[in-house]
Specification:
With 225 residues, the protein is of the alpha/beta class. It has two domains: 119 residues, 3-Layer(aba) Sandwich (Rossmann fold), CATH 3.40.50.2300; 90 residues, Arc Repressor Mutant, subunit A (Orthogonal Bundle), CATH 1.10.10. Helices cover 40% and strands 20% of the residues. It has eight helices and eleven strands. Helix 2 packs parallel to helix 3 and helix 6 packs across helix 8. InterPro entries: CheY-like_superfamily (IPR011006), OmpR/PhoB-type_DNA-bd (IPR001867), Sig_transdc_resp-reg_receiver (IPR001789), WalR-like (IPR039420), WH-like_DNA-bd_sf (IPR036388).
């Protein structure tokens, strides 16, 4: 899962970035409003964490531009502007969540997981395909109750496919959501990565649709809300 963090306070940006990476996300970071608007308008993200007080272009204007251009990724506003009227304004402008500063990092991560879950049509916090279960909070994957040892990149691939289980996902889409903006992307990397994951979870769960992409088959979702 790929996240854009828009935050101009260096210490906060560093702390949130470290927490996101530790939670398994790929992170692009900017503290400039114009740069943030451009990234969100041209790159593919699973979610955006957006501060409102930014140099160049304020967060609320960025949010309205994105929604006006039909950018549908979920957005979590993270801001010191915490009055009820400002929260209402942010939500009405198109934000999915509003978390005032100061905040607890665990709450930020929980709200991020929730908006990503909702944006992909999942109601529960555990993803299940047959006997394969992924717990986004614990970053834990099991099959038939036995834990699987996945690399961070293998986990991100599996997480994305399971969030979108039952839908064909192209190689281009996977590349856009698994790698940061400055990563040198190899055209064969996704095929190799899928092959590694298949060896660990079983070849039958990821189906190749020739000329189209990949799909997690036999999708069913389970777990407490």
């Amino acid at each position: 899962m790929r996240v854009l963090l828009v935050e101009d306070e260096g210490r906060i940006a560093e702390d949130v970035t470290q927490a996101l990476k530790a939670a398994g996300y790929v992170v692009d970071v900017t503290g400039d409003g114009e740069d943030a608007w451009f990234l969100g308008d041209t790159e593919e993200y699973d979610a955006v964490i957006l501060d409102l007080g930014l140099p160049g272009l304020d967060g609320l204007s960025i949010l309205k531009r994105w929604r006006g251009n039909h950018r549908r990724f979920p957005i979590l506003i993270l801001s010191a502007r915490g009055s009820w009227s400002e929260r209402v304004e942010g939500i009405d402008a198109g934000a999915d969540e509003y978390l005032p500063k100061p905040y607890h990092m665990e709450e930020l991560l929980a709200r991020l997981r929730a908006i990503i879950r909702r944006s992909t049509g999942q109601a529960n916090n555990l993803l299940q395909v047959n006997s394969l279960i992924l717990d986004p909070k614990q970053m834990r994957v099991t099959r038939d109750g036995a834990p699987l040892n996945l690399s961070p990149q293998e986990y991100r691939l599996l997480s994305y496919l399971m969030h979108h289980a039952g839908r064909v996902v192209t190689q281009i889409e996977l590349t856009e959501h698994l790698y940061a903006q400055d990563y040198e992307r190899d055209s064969n990397a996704i095929e190799v990565l899928v092959g590694r994951v298949r060896k660990k979870i079983g070849p039958e769960l990821i189906e190749t649709r020739r000329g189209f992409g990949y799909v997690m088959s036999g999708a069913e979702f389970s777990g407490p809300a």
